[in-house]
Amino acid sequence: MKVLMVAAEMTPLVKIGGLADVMGSLPKALRAMGHDIRLILPGYQQIDQSLQGLATEKKVTVALGGKDWTGEIFETQVGEVPVYLIKSPDFYERPGIYVNPEGRDYPDNLFRFSFFCVAALEALQVLSFRPEIIHCNDWHTSLIPGLIKTHYSSDPFYQSIRTLLTIHNLGYQGVFSLEELRSLDFNPWLSSAEGYEFYGKANLLKGGILLSDAINTVSPNYARETQIPEYGWGLDEVLRSRRDDIFGIINGLDYQEWNPATDLYIVSPFSIDSIEQKVDNKLALQRNLGLREDQEVPLLGLVARLVEQKGIDLLEEALPDLLRETNLQFVALGTGEKKYENLLQNLRKNFPQQVAVEFSFNELRAKQIYSGADMFLLPSRYEPCGLAQMICMRYGTIPIARATGGLVDTVTDYDPEGKGNGFLFYPFTGSALREAILRALQVYAEPTAWKELITRGMQTDFSWKNSALEYLALYYKITVG
Hints:
The protein is of the alpha/beta class. It has 2 domains: about 1-250 and about 465-480, Glycogen Phosphorylase B (Rossmann fold, 3-Layer(aba) Sandwich), CATH 3.40.50.2000; about 270-460, Glycogen Phosphorylase B (Rossmann fold, 3-Layer(aba) Sandwich). It has helices spanning about 20-30, 90, 110-125, 145-150, 180, 205-210, 220-225, 235-240, 280-290, 315-325, 340-350, 365-370, 390-395, 405-410, 430-445, 445-460, 465-480; strands at about 1-5, 35-40, 55-65, 65-80, 80-85, 135, 160-165, 175, 195-200, 200-205, 215, 245-250, 300-305, 330-335, 355-360, 375-380, 400, 425. The strands form 3 sheets. It has a 9-stranded mixed β-sheet, with helices on both faces. It has a 6-stranded parallel β-sheet with strand order 15-14-13-16-17-18, with helices on both faces. It is elongated and about 70 Å long. The model has no long low-confidence stretch (mean pLDDT about 95).
């Protein structure tokens, strides 16, 4: 199977969110199965020069907005995966990926990613690579299905190519003015209601949903949730119109990167056969963050972007009474909106002996929390898939999660009869989160039951192998039927 993945991010080259993690892992897993998987992304200036490889001395010309623009094609490899970078000083030689240093979206983002979509399609002929599937990801690449159905529809090179659109987060849709889309001089049909027009705006994700051959989300439960108003972000009706072509495939975890037995970032590597060594990581975390070192004290962790989606506001109701009434410790790592930083700062101020907070994203500290905490909070309003719950279970830490999106597909609620790998709560309320933490504390007080729970979590297989096989089956379904 020949597949071109088109995306705006990929680890380790450039990362803003979870999209990059998937692009860094899924192509590798499929390539290991013997398939010709390649990836193309913008050649941002942030990509390390040592990883850029050599220019192919090949270029593409993109006609956009009444002018011809040139993109240079660079080629490198990430592991065994060939990666093409489309370089253009006009669009990618700037400090940010999506936003400027002040945190505002670049005003020409529609132009930038429209250029990328056309350049990626033009590059196929220049590189003499005709895939069976173009795997698009999120709004940044959602113009590709529409372009194949219009501008490239009469070109024999493209006529057999099928498209898959993966929605990693429905909350980000690529909404711009319709006039701006029309100014790019694409086929006028793309600016119609059958294309990318949506309530008087240009909505790139909406058009991609309508025009791709199939759509998938990053978990089965999220695929269902996106089709109801509560989680549909205004696109639930559009998604329901394609319900027979929507699939859910859970993201996987890179077991080479996330391996507590070989992780150099943690104080005491351990495995399922040496769970007792996990406590050394807990004591080191307490020491590093200025908390009392005590292996008996339950330690609750959080690593998250501090944004509305992650449910940080529930902590204001759930944690203060628990911190007053128990010896619980809480550590948090993240950056984001000021109001959530203030919330966490107030917890630290009111409970300085029990709460530690760092406002940064530090991979070393994140891994120390994953490996050192006893429990891990995931109180999300919605969660397309989530990797944190998989990581924490891999590192013997028990998730306490809201029953939404991919969290439902990966976390099963604790049952005293010997089932479950975590604790779920359903209503999006602080009291429901508090009750879930109390249930976890009750089991934590029983060492035998807690160790069995840790073991079940560590035994759960979240590797990319199963998910890659599901993607492969979907590719064949799209191409063969």
